[in-house]
Amino acid sequence: MQLSRSARLIGRIPVYSPQCTRRWRSREALTSDGTATPLPDEALQRKKKSPFYFDTGYALFAKRPPRPFPPPFLSPPSGSFSDPLSTHHRSRDRRPEVNGEMIRGITNGDDAVLVEENIIAADDGVGAWATRPKGHAGLWSRLILHYWALEAERDTSIDASEGSTTEPDPVRYLQTAYEQTKKATSTPNEWHGTTTACGAILHHTILNSHMEPTLYVTNLGDSQIMVLRPKDQEIIYKTKEQWHWFDCPRQLGTNSPDTPVNNAVMDKVIVHENDVVLAMSDGVSDNLWEHEILQNVLDSIRTWEHGPRGDDPRDRIGGANGGMLFVAQELVKAARVIAEDSFAESPFMERAVEEGLAMEGGKLDDISVVAALCRHREG
Fold first, then answer.
1. How many angstroms separate the CA atoms of 177 and 108, rounded?
2. Helix (H, G, I), strand (E, B) or coil at 209
3. Residue 322 and residue 312: Cα distance in Å, rounded?
4. What is d(CA 371, CA 377) in angstroms, rounded to the nearest whole number?
5. Strand blocks (E) in 21-127
């Protein structure tokens, strides 16, 4: 299939045009944050067996108000401006279901994020679908993430107890999610869209009779998983962006030739307790260089460790017990400053210039950050 350079399959609005990138400004932008995305009661009450878990936080910036989700995915208005499907109290705001399951995650503009104890993810929907009949990238990014999470939750190996040698299969989960999303958005509920997909599952590996926390990282497109080791002040791992060409990432959905089974990359990464794992849409990586992301996270952790505690006696070392929410908030703030600066230098500007495109400033986009601290479960 011949892809159109200007259209990213149907493509994102050409962000290298100053007229396009400055169309939406902060007067319409929306922000939200939290420590975890909603789960049904039965999932919350399920006893966790995995020896490791994520201490999490997320922060979101939407460049413009999200489009309402169409029937049958429509829900009553919620308390979260950035999330058409979220709920804060099910008796007041009944969260919709797909095939009898509560829809997982949170929507941020055309992005979607998932934040659970053993799984984090960030999907980036291609926003230009909003200009097409039956186009809805935000629906596609959210449903891919939902079905992906559901497949992972159903696999008992994800929450295997200490000593188990079973392994997750995240590419298979994503392939099933892709197929189920295509089915859910087909006639009579036909909606078009495409999205990148990037996620990390926290599991464990037995090495020399010693149990090590292990990430199963899956990526398709240009969202990113990054692993930082604060004690050594370094980035120990990051996913590699997958592009068809500049500003046209691999993506799942309508008219795209990409599929998880053929194009997703899965890496197995041994991590340490107190390593920080970030799941980010390209609204971060297009506006901040790697060294800026690292320094921002290190500074935020130090501030959290030494900040006022109030009446909270809990451990704050390494960003524990609320620090990851602060890390995510500060990273979104930093990326947003560059995104809204028409004269700033940015990684996206640098890549555009290398392609012979006249552009300056940051790239205004939805910005989604999930920050997760790897912890050992007591007892």
1. 20
2. coil
3. 11
4. 18
5. 30-34, 52-62, 97-98, 101-102, 106-108, 111-115, 119-124
